[in-house]
Every structure is written in structure tokens, then in C-alpha cells.
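Lab channel / #folding
Pinned by the channel admin:
"Please post every new chain as: sequence first, then the C-alpha cells as a reply. Keep commentary short and put observations after the output so the thread stays searchable."

First post following the new format, from NK:
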Amino acid sequence: MKMLLLKLGGVGLLAAACGSTAMPPPSMTEAQSSVRAAEAVGAESLPRGALHLKLARDGIEDAKRLIADDESEKAELVLERAEVDAELALALTYEAKARAEAQTALAEVRELGGTN
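Reply from TO:
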């Protein structure tokens, strides 16, 4: 019986500990996911991509401080901006890659056609 009470007490403590931990808002997860996506495609290799990626990372850190200071509304706005910055870094990277591929294809076409 004592073992059962100890186990139930341990489960209760665990549940209380988990309940007191603040979950990050969904916008935090979205912003972090957008940063990871931009990193994955190489946004840091472009100056403008790296800039917006840095702004997104800084925004996430600012939002963490705001959440710790119980300023959730401000944190949400900062996180929205961070997500947009990360998405812009991603879009800029895709654009640069598409532009480079188009230039390569154009050069190949010119070479095949013998025109400049």
C-alpha cells in the first residue's frame, strides 16, 4: 500500500511540475520553424537573407525576454515579425537560386544557338 501511495504521490508531483512550466505560444514555434527552414535552404549565404535571418533570431530572443517579463501581447507581435523576417529570408534565397538557374539555362541556350 505504501508503494502505491508513493507512486501516486510521485505522479502527482510530476504533473504539478509539468503544469507549472510555461508552454511557448504557437507563434514561437512557428517563428522557430521558419528560421530553421531558412537555415536549411542556405539563407545565410546571401547578405539580405542573412540579415533577415538575424532579425528573426533576434526577434525570437526578444520575445523570450518579453514572455519572461509577462508581456505576452508584445511578445506575440515580436514573434509575428520574426516569422515574417524568416520567411523573407527563405523567399530571398529561393529567388536567388531560381535566378542563378535561369542564368545558367539562358547561357546554355545561347551556347547551343550560337547567339549572344
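NK: The chain has one domain: 27-113.
TO: also worth noting, The chain has a mean pLDDT of 85.
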